[in-house]
Amino acid sequence: MLVVVLLMVGAGLATSAPVRSTPQTYLIGALNLLRLHSMDRDRVDWPRAEAEAVRRAADVTAPAGTYSMIREVIAELGNPHTRLVGPASARAPLPESIDVPRSHASHGVAVVRVPGFVADPAGERRYVAAGVAALQAVEGQATCGWVVDLRDNIGGNMWPMLTVLAPLLGDGVVGSFSGPGVAPVTWSVRDGRAVRGGSAPAAETNPVRLTRPRPPIAVLTSKLTSSSGEATLVAFRGMPGVETFGAPTGGAATGNEVFDLSDGAQLLITTVVDVDRTGRIYGNVPIEPDHSVPPADAEAVAAQWVRAQGGCG
After folding, report:
1. DSSP bridge partners of 243
2. Which residue has the higher pLDDT, 6 or 58?
3. What share of the chain in percent tops pLDDT 90?
4. Is 9 a residue whose pLDDT tops 90?
5. For helices 67-77 and 46-56, angle between their N-to-C axes, nearest 10 degrees
6. What is the per-residue pLDDT for 92?
7. 242-246 and 217-221: which strand pairing?
8. Quick one: which of 12, 44, 155, 252 is 20 to 30 A from 6 by CA?
9. Residue 93: its pLDDT value, please?
10. For position 90, what pLDDT does the model report?
């Protein structure tokens, strides 16, 4: 599945590399994945890079001993979103330990906080269920509009995030992925479900329907907003009645494919960039907010804007 990833919080097809019989073949396999899939592959002199890595790995006795060689080639790609994650960090957290969406409301403005997400299917069900409950708890109080808080969203799997926010995004195409040599892949919302291309990567559906259609929406960002947190922001960009508040984002509005290696490590290889519904292309550059506000003050300023737009004063 396409997952946007940051520090193993991860949009890409989860693919397993063949079993490697020696550290040297493990290394060659990892470099081949980078050469074949990275959108930045043309930046590297592959014959030189591979020969140097193999020379240095001649006496290595375990796959972990090749990590530094792999990371040096990743550095040559020049894409900060591409990375090698060790086996311990590649393990999904327990479902009960993950942060989940929460909400509150005040004076006609409903605020929903959408944190980053990485977990197994059980964790995804818990995350979406909590998000649905959060929206249900405040939907009746959103007489002026909504604030979507992405300030602490460092990334993960974007599809549960879009499912939680499906009632606010509305049905239709909300963005896409684009990359060299690959066909664009759309992100859509359909009947409360996030849809990638023609499939539905999020198994869960959000049944919430807004009493007030097309309300004013303010989206909050900070430098922590990154990876799939930025993809979630991009899904709102170009949408009528939406403005953003806070600080520039982390600058990783790109999508990665996740490749499982034989020792439990993972290669997160950037293959695409995010594109909003207007066709604007993003990438590894921070996304500037419409209203630059210290993140700590962003919710209050955004709520005031929502009330003004909603005719609530």
Report:
1. 218
2. 58
3. 81
4. no
5. 160
6. 76
7. parallel
8. 44
9. 78
10. 80
Q: For the segment 283-305, what is each residue's pLDDT rounded down to a tens digit? A: 999 999 999 999 999 999 999 99
- Please report, as a single letter, which amino acid is at residue 242: V
Task: With beta carbons less than 8 A apart as the criterion, state whether 255 and 186 touch.
Answer: no
Task: Give the whole-angstrom CA distance, residue 173 versus residue 201.
Answer: 15
**Is it the case that residue 215 has pLDDT exceeding 50?**
yes
User: Can you say whether residue 34 is alpha, beta or left, with left for phi > 0 and alpha for psi between -120 and 50 degrees?
Assistant: alpha
Q: Which of 276, 285, 278, 281 shows the shortest CA–CA distance to 249?
A: 285
**Residue ranges of domains in the chain, CATH in brackets:** 95-252+271-309 (3.90.226.10)
In sequence order, what DSSP letters do the residues of the chain get, joined into one string? --BB-BTTB-----EEPPPPSSHHHHHHHHHHHHHHH-TTGGGS-HHHHHHHHHHHTTT--SGGGGHHHHHHHHHHHT-TT-EEE-HHHHSPPPGGGS---EEEEETTEEEEE---B---HHHHHHHHHHHHHHHHHHGGG-SSEEEEE-TT---B-HHHHHHHTHHHH-SEEEEEEEETTEEEEEEEEETTEEEETTB-----------SSSS--EEEEE-TT--THHHHHHHHHTT-TTEEEEES---S--EEEEEEE-TTS-EEEEEEEEEEETT--B--SSPPPPSEE--HHHHHHHHHHHHHHHTT--
